[in-house]
């Protein structure tokens, strides 16, 4: 599912006579474990900036997105990225957030940026888009006004199916955690094109946080109860939960 990751993945529940929101595979099983604390992210703004809550803590976030394109397409109104049919299109953006009190020591501040490109062409009467420069996300952090760490995430070549998994690392306050996107949906076979969430582990494979990114104004987070790793886990999980993934192609 290409496009803004803030969109929810919906499953037609024919037997129920309606639709339900897709859930990340394995999240509920981990939530039942005593080794994790559930910490909901709620009240996300529908506009490009506003406040939110992470459990008992409060924060603010602001997003700015952009696009550019070069190539050929029909003359008309709208952004070049929406008009070009043969050429190259770039999607990029920045976002910033802060978090105060209640879930980790001190005040957390983050500045993030991301970007990717795609190549467009036509085959007979069909528009074709292929990933160009892979998606990359970078974040830097401050804690109580002091530099605290950096996060890097990148799209990787697909292994099975259409999904381009995202992998990366955060280094925060002397700790390193590995980041990996999850594309499985509960009770549904196959993989979604956009991530359903992320799993954060120590270098030796111990899970310290899981974030389900599917939702409109809320996200579900699970955090390890290990106090030493908690600040790094919160910084990374919140960065990924607030990331508007543009997908690999439009």
Description:
- The chain is built from three helices and 18 strands.
- It has 250 residues and is mainly beta.
- Strands 3, 4, 5, 6, 7, 8, 9, 10, 11, 12, 13, 16, 17 and 18 form a 14-stranded antiparallel β-sheet that branches. The chain has a two-stranded antiparallel ribbon with strand order 1-2.
- A hairpin with a 2-residue loop joins β14 (184-185) and β15.
- It starts with 9 loop residues before the first strand and ends in a 9-residue tail after the last helix.
Shape: globular
- End-to-end C-alpha gap: 9 Å
- The helix content is under 10%
Stretches with pLDDT under 50, minimum 5 residues: 1-19
Count the E strands.
Answer: 18
The total of helices stands at 3
Largest sheet: 14 strands, antiparallel
Strand content of the residues, in percent? Answer: over 45%
Label the structural class: mainly beta
The average pLDDT value, as a whole number, equals 88
Radius of gyration: 19 Å
What is the string of helix and strand elements?
Answer: EEHEEEEHEEEEEEEEEEEEH
